[in-house]
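ok trying this again, last paste got cut off
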Amino acid sequence: MVTNKEGSQYADAEMLKERGFLVYNCTDTVVTGMISEVKPDVVFINPESPDLHITKVYHSILKDKELANIPVIYALNEDDLYLVSCQRNSRSKKNVTTDNVMDGIRMSLAPAIDKRAKEPLNLLGRQVDLWPANVHVA
């Protein structure tokens, strides 16, 4: 979990830990080193106050080819709206928004959607079982 103010993501980190996720916290100044060391399944950017620098950090993660297989979730509006940037090496996935961080994590980790599938892939709620204890959120 990345933020631009140290200690500000405590409540969200605790919520994810209570749901069985392994959460690493860092500030935007050390995010690149943290990602290369931890190799998380998802990067969750949750800025205390969105500014140009944290937006540049978000875009630098998206542009980094070595991080293309790591989904990125960006909190647009605290506890209300999240932008989910799925794996950038999956052509069938798009960026989506959600109002629930848990659904955002599920959507970002769901397998690529096959356009030839006969039935839709249900992603919301408890319909996707991801075994959250095996997921690392940075």
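PB: full thing came through this time. The radius of gyration is 14 Å.
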